[in-house]
Amino acid sequence: MSYKNEEHLQSAPQSPSVWRDLLFLLMKIGAIALVFMLLFTFLFGIIRYAEPSMAPAIKDGDLVIFYRSIESGYQSRDAVVLEVDGKKQVRRVVATAGDHVDITEDGLVINGALQQEQDIYQKTEQFVEGVSFPLIVPEGQVFVLGDDRASAKDSRIYGSVWISDIEGSVMTVIRRRNI
């Protein structure tokens, strides 16, 4: 071998070690996992919904991703995640602070107007063991109902809920059944 070829081989850059590349890859994966963990701890949440009381919008077994919007106000028709008796529920806001809520034989009445709700297929009725109607939603609270009005345990039973007890607004639903 000539002197020129030996010099060329010695000055060629060393290839990085496989272990260093593997460590760098693991550090990247760890950083990405940490970012996702922080996002889903402080900004977003995810639950597996395990009851039929929000059907057909959210079915038993669906994954619900929600935004932890603690400081934002909730509007009528917002689906929210809350915890009642140690169990996470998804319910729909139907009335906010100051609204007059009544359930008559005609159905749900908010501020004197009978509600024609999209995707609600059962008549809204009072429960025997629930709260008394009519009522005014207190400041800092919302009145929530499940979409499956016949089987949902909601504000008709436990009354208006504090906004501070709401964990966030539903962003998306991922169907898990029959996939």
Count the strands? 11
Write the CATH homologous superfamily of the largest domain.
Umud Fragment, subunit A
**CATH topology (fold) name of the largest domain:** Umud Fragment, subunit A
Beginning-to-end CA distance, first to last residue? 65 Å
- Overall mean confidence score, pLDDT: 87
Order of helices and strands: HHEEEEEEEEEHEE
Computed structural class: alpha+beta
General description of the model:
This protein starts with a helix and ends in a 5-residue tail after the last strand. The model has no long low-confidence stretch (mean pLDDT 87). It has a 7-stranded antiparallel sheet. A 4-stranded antiparallel sheet has the order 7-6-5-8, with no helix packed on it. A hairpin with a 2-residue loop joins β3 and β4. It is built from 3 helices and 11 strands, in the order ααβββββββββαββ. The chain is α+β, with helices and mostly antiparallel strands and 179 residues long. The longest helix is centred in the N-terminal third of the chain and has 26 residues. It is elongated and about 80 Å long.
Short description:
By secondary structure, this protein is an alpha+beta fold.
Structural descriptors:
7-stranded antiparallel β-sheet, Umud Fragment, subunit A, 2 domains, alpha+beta, 179 residues, 22% helix, elongated
